[in-house]
Amino acid sequence: MELNDVKPNSYVFSRILASYRDRGEWQRSFQVLKEMKNCRVNPDRQFYNVMIDTFGKYNCLDHMMATFKRMKVEGIEPDTVTWNTLIDCHCKQGHHNRAEELFEEMQESGCLPCTTTYNIMINSFGEQERWNDVKELLGKMQSQGLLPNVVTYTTLIDIYGKSGRFNDAIECLEVMKSAGLKPSSTMYNALINAYAQRGLSEQAVNAFRVMRGDGLKPSLLALNSLINAFSEDRRDAEAFAVLQYMKENDLKPDVVTHTTLMKALIRVEKFEKVPGVYEEMLLSGCTPDRKARAMLRSALRYMKSTLQS
Q1: Residue 279 belongs to what H/E stretch?
Q2: What span, in angstroms and rounded, lies between the C-alpha atoms of 96 and 77?
Q3: Neighbour tally for 144: CB within 10 Å
Q4: Which UniProt keywords apply (predicted)?
Q5: What percent of the chain has pLDDT over 70?
Q6: Of 47, 76, 213, 226, which shows the fewest CB atoms inside 10 Å?
Q7: CA-CA distance, 237 to 282, in Å (whole number)?
Q8: How far is the C-alpha of 258 from the C-alpha of 255, rounded, in Å?
Q9: pTM (predicted TM-score)
Q10: What pLDDT was estimated at residue 189?
């Protein structure tokens, strides 16, 4: 562009900045900004949104807020993308109170929250188990003429599931279907995993069956969660049946699959079978992680102590 005497604009610089962000080189943001000044190009809203997102992705909240203030000083009004990024990044860092303050500031500034904003705040309140506030947000969202979307229901099912509020999760699923929205694999993955974490294998299996009934192909994540549910419930035979299902349906087991199967065997004290699973993992091309190696050592240790006794 320089050779052809073509002057770059703010959009060009925002794309350069996004490229650095995606490569993990967030520090180059300052260099890009300096180069813009040298070229006498003023940052626009899109550039600042990318810069705010860059700092947020790499947990540089101070830089993110400084950029936000600079943006306003320069007379550029934040839009919903700006506010959503600020709120979401604070939530992900566990700064829920500050996120709520930003949510209020957004509305006071005259910028109306969109469905994405409400989804972020619903997730935030859910993580804090502020269930009345979750319901209040849903009501406020709908009064604004915004209908819950698939992401909204997926978020609700996830937060309800993690907190063991399974009746609420199932109710969300039914309400969603009655509204004509099709459940996603991600939604069922969240529900199956929530049941698995509590060792509720029968409920996990039922969720899996409903998922299949809705015409959704189970992902590796969902099947690994199902194996974990059987493991927690000391049902190793069913756990290995899931492994067989994977193989028959061209789903390649990963390191999590094999590690969870080893855990299932250890729970029922079938230590002698653990090395076989570990070997199968190696033969399948999976690289064992620290947890997998720990499982193998644990099984070998028990086998050794049994022989010595």
Answers
A1: helix 274-283
A2: 24
A3: 12
A4: Repeat
A5: 98
A6: 213
A7: 22
A8: 5
A9: 0.80
A10: 85
pLDDT digits over 194-208, tens only?
Answer: 888 887 888 888 988
168: nearest Cα among 177, 184, 157, 182 = 157
Amino acid type, 260: T
Structural domain boundaries of the chain? 148-246, 252-309
Residue 307, pLDDT score: 67
Pairwise CA distance, residues 158 & 165, whole Å: 10
The 10 Å CB-count burial string (b at 16+, else e) for 58-73 is bebbebbbebbeebee
pLDDT at 194: 87
Q: What is the pLDDT of residue 129?
A: 93
Going by C-alpha positions, the residue among 276, 279, 277, 271 that lies closest to residue 299 is 271
- Written as six digits, the tokens of 21 are 């962000």
Phi, psi of 265 (to 5 degrees): -70, -40
Q: Does residue 15 register a pLDDT over 70?
A: yes
Residue 253 — φ and ψ, nearest 5°?
-60, 145
**Residue 54 in 3-state DSSP?**
helix
Residue 270 · residue 236 · CB < 8 Å:
yes
Q: Which DSSP category does 219 fall into?
A: P
Let me know: does 224 contact 210? Beta carbons within 8 Å: no
- Given the candidates 3.30.450.70, 1.25.40.10, 1.20.1540.10, 1.10.287.3610, the CATH classification of the domain at 148-246 is 1.25.40.10
CA distance 231 to 193: 12
Integer CA distances (angstroms), 6 to 9, 39, 40, in order: 9, 11, 13
Say if CB 211 and CB 222 are below 8 A apart: yes
- Spatial distance between the Cα atoms of 82 and 48, rounded to a whole number of angstroms: 8
DSSP state for residue 7 in the 8-state scheme:
P
Which residue would you say has higher pLDDT here, 258 or 13?
A: 258
pLDDT tens per residue, range 18-64: 998 898 888 888 888 888 888 888 889 999 999 999 999 999 999 99
